[in-house]
Write the structure tokens for this entry.
Amino acid sequence: MSKVARIPGYQSKNPKQNRGIIGDREIRFKCSLQNVILDVLRGRPGWTEVPGDGDWDFYWCDREWLHQNYDTMFLHEHQKILHFRNHYELTRKNLMVKNLKRLRKQTEREQGKTEAQSFDFYPTTYELPSEYHIFVEEFKKNLGIIWIMKPAAKSQGKGIFLFRRLKDITDWKKGEYQPLSDQTRDVPETYVVQRYIENPLLIGGRKFDVRVYVLVCSYNPLKVWLYRGGFARFSNTRFSLDSIEDTYVHLTNVAVQKNAPDYDPEKGCKWSTQQLRKYLAAKHGVDKVQKMFKAIDNIIIKSLQSVQKIIINDKHCFEMYGYDVLLDDDLKPWLIEINASPSLTASGKEDYDLKFGLISDLLNVLDLENRLTGKEKRIGGWDLLWDDGPIVADDNMDCTPANGAAVSTPNSYLGCFNDRKKQLREIYLTAQSVKKS
Ligand SMILES: Nc1ncnc2c1ncn2[C@@H]1O[C@H](COP(=O)(O)OP(=O)(O)O)[C@@H](O)[C@H]1O
Ligand SMILES: [Mg+2]
């Protein structure tokens, strides 16, 4: 007889539920990645990996696979798969801004200018080459400021550079954009040119941005979960606007920073979001920090609403986004980009534990084992943020920040204490008794 491990924090009297069983059989998964996600899936009690083209219940696929297969595959009732069909509407840098601009305009038309100001969270951005002329007009109105150029569909800081003079970009343009009639070259790659945030909040003289994890289980109605854990990624070199060509100063991607000459792999370049929240609350006061986290909630909801009608909503699909949020020295959060495949490779023990908990709890939210009631507002480290409308905080939810100070009902639990295992035990017990009665 095979030995079956227990699902942490849960024990049902029904042995099938302890082992992760759909109906009469175990849950079969496939996974395209070789990192923490695979460890979680392989370690999950009762879940089995299916080889090759075998039937699956759960597939953590890569985006390329989805694009090649989505239109020809038929999904059964119980099947769950990562990514929505056209996820790039939000995760390609040019499309994200296009969708945000559209919803902003619509909001201004229907609800007025003040309401539209709630969209003031992305830096001025243009798509190149298509909006080159509008960009030049804007450039001339603001001579001297810094702009950042980014390929629309690349990641990890690849192809990014900063500039102040139009000449820098015209030189680059000559090399990059040959006329389309030149048959030796492909269609030019799409870029975005974006206003560079010149006044980032610095800690110890260094720039950082915040990685926020967001889970969308449905776009219609919109149902959104926010993970309370995450991290701040620091640049390795002190911030200065004198050396705009130095990527180690200006790009906070781990993929960039780990190549810096003085990078210390032991120390890494991350702080947990808990540590960040604690530090900011001590330095800037709880109220200001709460306002800042509330503004991050607004960014998440507005950005998802901007594609709500465009994303092909499919009940089999879910998406775990990695938001890149930059704070300026006034503690205003700016949306930099949204990733559909945030890195799940761990850069150390703490990072591994964070990602392991993140993915385990994501599976707990999806609940293929059908152990929960479906009414939970918090599942492990995931807090329900939006369910066809805002979620009002329960007073008895534990929102103690890392420093232990009591805080009255913050809207966001990002960076709050994450006692996920204890919380899971409690909700599974409650769900069992609800189901029995
Ligand atoms: N407008 C901006 N202002 C300031 N810093 C920025 C801006 N855009 C990007 N950055 C920095 O560059 C990094 C990489 O940019 P990002 O848009 O996330 O592209 P990538 O897909 O390569 O990660 C960010 O993490 C941030 O540190
Ligand atoms: Mg990024």
